[in-house]
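Hi all, posting the design record for the shared folder.

TITLE: backbone redesign
STEP: 1 of 1
STRUCTURE INPUT:
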């Protein structure tokens, strides 16, 4: 009489497994070559350690893997197909996040299909842990880092106020005096927002949760605790840096700042360790009943995995086809005279740090002045012909010390159409000794299609890369001081935009 294990195919056909392995390597190598330089960035520097840690966790389960009979799972093919589609989207749209996520799903799908659920659930955590090696999308990082930066500045400013140090906030800079009455200036830059440590600590808290000898919900609690611990630890680090500045002065504070990261991870790791031990001291969960003997899934052969893998390989080969880069629009050749508006002074240049952040292929930073009223307008255009995402000016507007009074979306009449713009009424103490209010207009352009929403713009870029294998767009920002007359400033800004916008569209259409 046949037993349960007799009905299970323990060893798939070697040629099928070998072919699948070759195809996986072909898919993995290009993604790995893209990930290596990205892993050198601070927010993803933990990436190379993730596959090594996952492999170690699998090795730890070697005895359990040997004791459990192998099987097949048709669900693996569904997971593999989803991964192949995600991978194809990533390589065709030049989106590393989707390509890397698709590759992880492919590895998981192939593994589940070839060994079955009984074995796969033993290594479920290492398989899921691989997602931590994927760098987060720039759009998500930008949005989160700005919000964390603002929260960190507010928390630090509140603590210093409660401590009687009397800080003054100017954008991302906090000014106060040391115990010796010397001025101290502390800038909470984007790198101090805690986003880099948050991503790494999420991976660490996942390991702590996995190693917690408790029920599943307690393991999840340990993992989720990584978020508040990372935020509070980063705030504690900033407070320590500020207190060093208060006690010792500016130079010792800067020296301590450069070596303060270990304190953050020390605080967070201690918190995770304390929570882990506390949960392990509670009554242990009831032992699980032994799993029933695995039963073979409907018969399937390894070559079936070749079909979705071929889809991913086809997308990879198509992505290798070179696409010529379009010419630059020549933004600096924009007209110097626009009706009553005259080019005022030489064109400005973005700083190296701004260029690194904005990654423009062409850019314009120019001041126009109205010949009758003398009213100045600063216009900035950032163009990219192979953009994956654009910068959100909202972040740098407030991060640069500009206080937003209110925000609305407005339509500005252009010949033959009305164009939507974001409008910020703002105040910046740095523009004049006594401060100055200004109107800030900005929008995104995908060809001649305007939008005020960054995610809408990114969706258009993604669609263009899938359809045309290239995507181009521009960010347009116009700043005009109100000079105490908001309504007049708005009217004169609309006059400038009505003249400048058609010229810009005409130039962008030439590429």
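Okay, here is what came back for every position:
SEQUENCE:
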């Amino acid at each position: 009489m046949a037993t349960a294990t007799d009905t299970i195919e323990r060893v798939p056909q070697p040629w099928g497994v070998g072919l699948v392995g070759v195809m996986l390597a072909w898919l993995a190598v290009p993604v790995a070559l893209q990930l290596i330089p990205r892993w050198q960035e601070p927010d993803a520097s933990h990436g190379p350690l993730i596959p090594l840690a996952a492999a170690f966790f699998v090795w730890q389960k070697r005895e359990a893997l040997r004791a459990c009979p192998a099987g097949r799972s048709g669900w693996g093919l569904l997971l593999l197909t989803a991964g192949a589609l995600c991978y194809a989207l990533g390589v065709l749209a030049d989106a590393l996040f989707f390509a890397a996520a698709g590759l992880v799903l492919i590895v998981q799908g192939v593994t589940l299909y070839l060994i079955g659920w009984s074995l796969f659930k033993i290594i479920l955590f290492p398989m899921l842990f691989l997602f931590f090696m994927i760098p987060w999308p720039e759009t998500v990082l930008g949005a989160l880092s700005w919000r964390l930066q603002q929260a960190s500045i507010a928390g630090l400013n509140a603590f210093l106020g409660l401590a009687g140090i009397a800080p003054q906030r100017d954008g991302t800079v906090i000014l106060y005096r040391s115990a010796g009455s010397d001025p101290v200036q502390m800038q909470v830059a984007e790198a101090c927002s805690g986003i880099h440590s948050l991503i790494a600590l999420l991976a660490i808290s996942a390991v702590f949760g996995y190693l917690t000898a408790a029920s599943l919900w307690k393991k999840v609690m340990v993992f989720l605790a990584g978020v508040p611990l990372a935020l509070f630890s980063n705030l504690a680090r900033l407070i320590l840096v500020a207190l060093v500045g208060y006690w010792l002065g500016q130079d010792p504070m800067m020296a301590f700042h450069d070596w303060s990261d270990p304190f953050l991870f020390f605080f967070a790791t201690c918190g995770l360790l304390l929570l882990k031990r506390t949960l392990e001291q509670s009554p242990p969960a009831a032992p699980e009943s032994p799993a029933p003997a695995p039963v073979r899934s409907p018969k399937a052969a390894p070559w079936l995995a070749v079909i979705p893998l071929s889809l991913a390989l086809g997308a990879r080969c198509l992505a290798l086809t070179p696409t010529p880069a379009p010419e630059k629009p020549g933004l600096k050749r924009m007209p110097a005279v626009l009706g009553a508006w005259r080019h005022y002074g030489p064109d400005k240049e973005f700083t190296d740090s701004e260029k690194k952040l904005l990654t423009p292929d062409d850019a314009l930073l120019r001041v126009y002045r109205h010949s009758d009223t003398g009213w100045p307008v600063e216009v900035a255009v950032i163009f990219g012909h192979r953009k994956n995402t654009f910068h959100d000016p909202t972040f740098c507007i407030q991060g640069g010390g500009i206080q937003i009074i209110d925000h609305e979306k407005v339509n500005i009449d252009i010949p033959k159409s009305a164009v939507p713009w974001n409008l910020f009424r703002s105040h910046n103490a740095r523009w004049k000794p006594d401060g100055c209010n200004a109107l800030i207009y900005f929008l995104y352009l995908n060809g001649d299609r305007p939008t005020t929403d960054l995610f809408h713009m990114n969706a258009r870029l993604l669609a263009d890369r899938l359809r045309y294998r290239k995507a181009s767009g521009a960010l347009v920002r116009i700043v005009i001081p109100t000079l105490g007359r908001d309504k007049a400033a708005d009217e004169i800004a609309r006059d400038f935009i009505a003249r400048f916008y058609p010229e810009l569209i005409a130039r962008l259409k030439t590429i």
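COMMENT: The CA atoms of residues 45 and 433 lie 43 Å apart.
Let me know if anyone wants the other runs.
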